[in-house]
Amino acid sequence: MVFESKHPLVKHKLSLMRSVETKPKKFRELIREVAMLLCYEATADLGTTAIEVKTPMGTAAGQELSEKIGLIPILRAGLGMVDGIWEMMPGAEVWHIGLYRDEETLQPVSYYNKLPTFPTVQVCLVLDPMLATGGSAIATIDILKKWGAQRIKFMGLLAAPEGIEALQKAHPDVPIHIAQIDSHLNDIGFIVPGLGDAGDRQFGTG
Ligand code: PRP
Prior knowledge:
Elements: E1 2-4, H1 8-18, H2 24-42, E2 48-55, E3 58-65, E4 69-75, H3 82-88, E5 93-94, E6 97-101, E7 108-113, E8 123-127, E9 130-131, H4 135-147, E10 151-159, H5 161-170, E11 176-181, E12 184-185, E13 191-192, H6 198-203
Parallel strand pairs: 1-11, 4-5, 4-6, 4-8, 8-10, 9-10, 10-11
Antiparallel strand pairs: 2-3, 6-7, 12-13
Helix pairs in contact: 1-2, 2-3
């Protein structure tokens, strides 16, 4: 299932991120904010347990999250999506996966993975702003499934139709939450019109 955000704040902030005028400091603020808004939508079906809460006036029927959440940023660009989400869910664990895309083959190359032997979370939110060919997301979800992750969601800012199709084909059980679906991939595997290289734009390395 693909969920493209319809939220005006997401659209507004994403448009600012796309602009060539937006500098890394502002870009980092925006990616943090858009990630929080997307997370609000992507976590709407998390499980809760009924609890009783003592208020100054009596007892209220409340709820608490019943599932352990893992945030899985794909390095580097996924890093900028962590902080805001983590602030809202401070009990989440963060497990980094390092992949870069080979510029010639466009295939993901793995360089960092320190997942423990057995899964420690029940819901994994894979964070990567760009879903281009889908190779990085598919490889990360392959890793998480081998790890034993049961429930996985993908969260990103921009997707190419090619990436969505590939990810849905490889992992039809993983819902895709995206701020906007763009037109296509160009011949060097960049999303068009896109926003450029989300890693470079955050870290000032472009
Ligand atoms: C970019 C982007 C995604 C990936 C998307 O990362 O941040 O991780 O490419 O492409 P795909 O869907 O075709 O796999 P990049 O390899 O540039 O690494 P970086 O985040 O370290 O800059």
